[in-house]
Amino acid sequence: MSDDQDHGFETDALHVGQEEPDAEARSRAPPLYQTTSYVFEDAEDAAKQFALEKPGHIYSRLMNPTVGMLQERLAALEGGVGAVATASGMASLNLATFLLADVGDNVVTASSLYGGTYTYYTHTAPRNGVETRFVDTLDYDAYADAIDENTAYVHCETIGNPSLVTPDFERLAEIAHDHGVPFFVDNTFATPYLCNPIEHGADLVWNSTTKWIHGHGTTVGGVLVDGGSFPWEEHADKYPEIAGDNPAYHGVNFRERFEDAAFTYAAIARGLRDLGCQQSPFDAWQTMQGLETLPARMDRHCDNAMGVAEFLADHPEVSWVTYPGLEDHETHDTASKYLDGGYGGMITFGLDAGYDAARTTVESTEIASLLANVGDAKTLIIHPASTTHQQLTDEEKAAAGVTDDMVRLSVGTESVEDIKADLDQAIGQATH
């Protein structure tokens, strides 16, 4: 494959990072480099690699050839200049916050968030001296009003979990950049197949690769993608880990040495080195296997989800349905603008009979599995108020869009008629 030739997403998902077979064994599948460390050519080679003067592999906490293939592939699919694979999605969020926010800083984020992200911002980040300012996901004036000279970044999700709202990325990017801070987007629910936030102004993107990117419920992982667009050097005092003289490397300035990929190399050399949140070679190898079929799976997820959403909208026991593909969804027009090829695989809905009926529904399905994950090829179901968002106060649940009657459904790739029939019998058990 020629390096200067543009290819489609489906082709890149299969080939980027391994355009040619493995040089040693001519393996067509990505090789698994299950090793902790690497033999240097000589003492000079070792010294230059440790000084960041020469590329190479030192230790698998920093770099590994198998992990590197996955990073290169995901960077290409997200439209970034580099990527860092991490042990989980939450590890990616923590890594970015570690690099961007210092004691006394704050983060401005949309309030419609995955429960783990919300808990990280409310309980973990403050222990490191970082305040979080939550704003209504769709109140753009509120973002601008919340930003001050100590704001480290602005954050949102492509498709909010579990409210499923899609904010106006270009507007949020403009707000963030007008205030001199990067715009950071969690693209987990859309994946790069449906949305490229970097194309719409995001500077950094993260994914829980555990979900649709891998897609088979066996491998936990995350990725942090560097858009290469933020002018770190203009804000060196604010972001010294990226654009300042780094004392951990005898004054190396990542922006000067690595240019547009400064954040990527800072995340590796400072973040992975000191936090130890790297993805294992085996997990990266498994994630690449899942990634190869992402386009086909996402098409099926989206088609099935639309069919299930329409079925639920007509169900006599269902009081409301939220799915970005339905025309009555509050951000349907925005989702149609930014999501290309579908509206994702997530649905939330409520029952007229309320809390108890919602809980009975999720434990009465036969095909859908009651568990905390999303993005599996299999259909998954849960009651957020009593599980994923249980730790939140009533006020925080309301801000996140979680109601007592809410059922969250991750629509799989089974027969859509079987999924509908399963939901129908479960709802029937809960309401009769």
TrEMBL record:
This protein's UniProt keywords: Lyase, Pyridoxal phosphate, Transferase
Co-factor requirement: pyridoxal 5'-phosphate
PROSITE patterns membership: CYS_MET_METAB_PP (PS00868)
Domain of life (superkingdom): Archaea
NCBIfam families for this protein: OAH_OAS_sulfhy
Family: Belongs to the trans-sulfuration enzymes family.
Protein name: O-acetylhomoserine (Thiol)-lyase
Species per Swiss-Prot/TrEMBL record: Haloarcula vallismortis ATCC 29715
